[in-house]
Design a protein that fits this description.
mainly alpha
Amino acid sequence: FRIAAVTRAAREFGLILVGGAPSFGRQGLQSIGGMLLNIAARSYGDAAVAGMSIVSRIFMFIISVVIGVGQGLQPVAAFNYGARKFRRVQKAAVFTIGAAFCMLVVLVSLCWVNSDALIRLFRDAPEVTAVALPAFHYQCLDILLHPVIVACCRQGVFFIPLILILPRTLGLVGVETCQPIADALTFIVSLPFLLAFLKQLDRMDDAEKAKAQS
């Protein structure tokens, strides 16, 4: 290792920043969203704060599975995209979404059956379970949308405005349903982009084959 060998090119630093921006944005917005969720839940007592925190922790673990599967796709997609094998990128993306969905079905099924026990592992208090259990079930229903949705859109575009509005109109139910509603809206927005990109890969692959034949 030599200090003199460390790059000083602005372009290299720019590429590093661009590469890390998605993770920074996702984690930053997640932190802001968690803070606002605690503020909204605080109005309904310590049990509400504890209950929503427990649900967030459990689903953070489940979502990490989806993120891990997506990160496994990245080198495969990058290699084949660079090799201009666009249909392989498409097939890999579809396979990854399907695999993530299947994993989530299994995990969510296990969590749903054991939801009460899972919550009590963190805090064995009836008032906490009363808040956490409905929120847990709401998120179990929407978690299957996660292989498609965009994290920054989920936490920033929809969740933050909703957590500022829904608790004031729906009360505690607004706190419990805020994340599932944000996820559903993000899915609606993300799906057309995903489908358009998959179709674009088809056209690009056909163009490459036509070029090779000519």
